[in-house]
Task: structure prediction
Amino acid sequence: MAAWGSVSCAAMRILSGIQPSGKLHIGNYFGMMRPALELAERGAAFYFIADYHSLTSVSDAAQLRQNVLDVALDFLACGLDPAKTVFYRQSDVPQVTELAWILSCLTPKPMLDNAVSFKDKVADGLTPNVGLFTYPVLQAADILIVQGARVPVGKDQKQHIEITRDIAGAFNRQFGEVFVIPEPVIKAEVATLPGTDGRKMSKSYGNTIEIFGDEKATKKKVMGIVTDSQPVEAPKQNLDQNIPLQFLKVVAPGRAKEVESKLLAGGYGYGEAKKELLAALLDHFAPYRQKRAELEKNLDYVQQVLRDGAARASAVANETMQKVREAVGLR
Ligand code: ADP
Ligand code: TRP
Result:
């Protein structure tokens, strides 16, 4: 895993993607989006909306279009600066599917059999399609086609980046040095943020707190976060397991310190800590909520940003594909 501080080369390419498969949540934001936005200051960032990947789970065209727009609005509202970051829709760069095919021909099938996220979904009872099985190969193509050197993600994506490294290494050994070998960038304190039920926060578990949920819904979710049953009067123990405090540390470290002292002292309940978290979340996202409302009135601008991003990403993709086709003998 790349150390956060070692990322400094201005020309280095940084790439990440997010699936438009539902409403984005604060696990996505603090685990991937905020770190990715910080990292974008240190290199040439390429962030995209992984709509091809979403086809593995979304089968309603109108829904997919709406989700793509929502992710675009969410990311721009949360601070993505299209002047600095190439921001695009994956399917606007279809060269990536050609690369995915080429890479799939040098990916050993057992490597995909071992992909944990695939195995988890099947274990949850999902009947998998072939797209879900080969999902990591398409993800490898996303990264390699822009020669991404750093990939900011949450911890659940680590194995996918390792698969990408293996595939890129195999390609380079077989056909000559074409690809940069990428490294994941995962911030330890936000690597796996918990959901309201204590499992990893995930769209698929129904335990999320949405970034742009309305105030009432956010309140309901925050007040419903599971905590242990130590009474209000008790000086609290095992606070490292406490979800409201864990989030407060991420959202508002100053407020978290105060709340932690009060919990340790006793006579201060988890309900109070949750109210602090709710207030901190509403404060943190208030300016983004306003920005999102403005962007919603200017959808032409949003579409233009995606078109510009697609043109820039496509130019880079064409360069890579020329080398790849040459290397494998397709020209
Ligand atoms: P979900 O599990 O909700 O479907 P995605 O797979 O779309 O989320 O994740 C998008 C990005 O957000 C990925 O980089 C992923 O690692 C990160 N992420 C998702 N959930 C969390 C979480 N609970 N904690 C930290 N990062 C997360
Ligand atoms: N699999 C990632 C997720 O579910 C989304 C993704 C697709 C991605 N292609 C990528 C992330 C390339 C990083 C790099 O979150």
About this structure: The longest helix spans residues 299-328. The first strand starts at residue 13 and ends at 18. Confidence is low (pLDDT under 50) at residues 3-10.
